[in-house]
Every structure is written in structure tokens, then in C-alpha cells.
Design a protein that fits this description.
The chain is an all-alpha fold and 180 residues long. Helix content is 67%, strand content 0%. The chain starts with 17 loop residues before the first helix and ends with a helix. This is PDGFA associated protein 1. It comes from Bos taurus (Bovine). It holds the Pfam family PP28.
Length: 180
């Protein structure tokens, strides 16, 4: 092929030292601070002018949307103006503009979720009242378990009494045998 090993991409590489990287970051932070300070100085001048204050109070949300859109543009998008009729710009509503009193249209999933929760609540009320099949089965099972436990307790009590009687009669016999 050619007399050279490797192509044009094998040239000597340059590595940046950590000190250079730190210096670059510091320079970027300094630029950002300067831009913020310049922006704040421009904002202070607007606060002193009553005409500009009135304009800012009367301004519609469309101006806010344009500002947001300008801030969001990054990279090549800032250079090219795109006219997309299908693009819907997101509108941010302020808390004062929200309509909480009006009827809210629910999606099918939301309606189904609400119905599901209500049905579950109704079932739990019926279950606690003992009117469902499962509740009846549970109550019957509990009654059987109670009877078994009562019988077991009664048997234990009888066994203990029998044991006590046996030990008492054994002690009496010993005391009688010692008295003779």
C-alpha cells in the first residue's frame, strides 16, 4: 500500500494539564459573572423609569414566552430561525391564571382509576360489615378457631387440675406415712 504506517489521524496528541483546565474553568466563571452583573445593571435602570414599569405591568405573557424561547435556544438553533407551523410552544400559566373552580375534564385512565378506588372502598365497607362472601368465610373460620382454642384451654385446665390433685394426694400420703 503506502510507505507510511497509520494515517493522518496518528499525529502527535496534545494533552491539557489539570492547571490549564482549571484556568479555563475560572475564565468561564468570570465571564458568566460579568454577564450577570451587566444584566443586573440594565435591570436597575428599568426599575427607576415609571414608563418602563407600567409597560412591564401591562405586558402580556407572549413577551415572557418570547424571552423564554430566546433563552432556550442553544447551539446552531440560535443561528437558524425555524418556522415550524406544527410546533406548539409550551405556555406556562401563572398561579393567578389557573382556573380551579371550573369543571375539569378527566382522561379515561383517570376516570377508571377513580372508579377503581371507589369500588375498592365500597368493597372494604361491605367487608368490614361482614356482608361479602369472603368476610363470611373469614368469620366462620375465626369461629372455628375460637372453639378449638377454647377446647384446648379447657383441656389444659383439666390436665393441670388433675396434676394438682395427683400431687396433693401424693403429699397427703407422704404426710400420713410420716405421722405413723
Amino acid at each position: 500500500m503506502g510507505g507510511r504506517k497509520g494515517g493522518h489521524k496518528g499525529r502527535a496528541r496534545q494533552y491539557t494539564s489539570p492547571e490549564e483546565i482549571d484556568a479555563q474553568l475560572q475564565a468561564e466563571k468570570q465571564k458568566a459573572r460579568e454577564e450577570e452583573e451587566q444584566g443586573e445593571e440594565g435591570g436597575d435602570g428599568a426599575a427607576g423609569d415609571p414608563k418602563k414599569e407600567k409597560k412591564s405591568l401591562d405586558s402580556d405573557e407572549s413577551e415572557d414566552e418570547e424571552d423564554d424561547y430566546q433563552q432556550k435556544r442553544k447551539g446552531v438553533e440560535g443561528l437558524i430561525d425555524i418556522e415550524n407551523p406544527n410546533r406548539v410552544a409550551q405556555t406556562t400559566k401563572k398561579v393567578t391564571q389557573l382556573d380551579l373552580d371550573g369543571p375539569k375534564e378527566l382522561s379515561r385512565r383517570e376516570r377508571e382509576e377513580i372508579e377503581k378506588q371507589k369500588a375498592k372502598e365500597r368493597y372494604m365497607k361491605m367487608h368490614l360489615a361482614g356482608k361479602t362472601e369472603q368476610a363470611k368465610a373469614d368469620l366462620a373460620r375465626l369461629a372455628i378457631i375460637r372453639k378449638q382454642r377454647e377446647e384446648a384451654a379447657r383441656k389444659k385446665e383439666e390436665e393441670r387440675k388433675a396434676k394438682d390433685d395427683a400431687t396433693l394426694s401424693g403429699k397427703r400420703m407422704q404426710s400420713l406415712s410420716l405421722n405413723k
